[in-house]
């Protein structure tokens, strides 16, 4: 795509009920299943295209902010009380580490596996959303490093291994940043502004496609935006929901885009106007994605 285009592809919705705050969709290329979370419920959800079945998995937590695939199998759950290894087959979970222990009123938010086996996780102050959140990198040996500070709502975590860069955002600051990554996955330089959004649209969750372009869901913006590596907008996809939260590529060929959304901020009138709010949307983005990275935790 050489210039920006806006289009409305055919959009479907998975059969799972509306989520209060759907987030963090990830496609597992081993099981060929989609996973995502409802942060506020909290709940872990899965979708199996082979049977068209959606399943809710109980998690023993007050909040679940995000998830990641584990190299050893299963998932990592980023719960308010810490990170846990989770076995979907048995429902068992094992505590790994809490990157931010003992801080009252904080919870885990967006998280992502990087190409080097680390897990990145942001934290936020749940009730006031002051810029006191941080972005942590957790290595396979469970050591924890602060990679960014003074964030209100850390979001948009994504990695472009080919260009050696990380993307992350502060949703409240209307800004997506990028920074170079070292071979270990650590931030290797100062962040720089990659893109900004105009109110009321805020940058939420992201993913990177096979061509190295960043896809970002604009919370309260009713769309998903495709950015070139330069930060220029290549395309926008208008959505039938006002609060999309995150997106990922999935399907056997990684040619489907799954978009989570939220129903929690809407009143009864708005919900009537947005019958698909809170649902997981599925569409053809016109490009393919990359396999999701896995953590070594």
Describe the 3D structure:
The protein is mainly beta. 2% of the residues lie in helices and 49% in strands. It is globular and about 45 Å long.
Task: Lay out the secondary structure.
Layout: E1 5-7, E2 11-13, E3 22-28, E4 33-38, E5 43-48, E6 53-57, E7 64-70, E8 75-79, E9 82-86, E10 93-97, E11 106-113, E12 119-125, E13 133-138, E14 144-151, E15 154-160, E16 165-170, E17 175-180, E18 192-196, E19 202-208, E20 214-219, E21 223-227, E22 233-238, E23 244-250, E24 256-261, H1 268-273, E25 281-283, E26 294-295
What is the strand content?
over 45%
Q: Specify Rg, calculated over alpha carbons.
A: 17 Å
Helix/strand/pairing category? mainly beta
Cα distance, first to last residue?
Answer: 38 Å
Written as H for each helix and E for each strand, in order along the chain, the element string is EEEEEEEEEEEEEEEEEEEEEEEEHEE
Total helices: the number is 1
Looking at the structure, what is the overall shape? globular
State the gist of this model.
Helix content is 2%, strand content 49%.
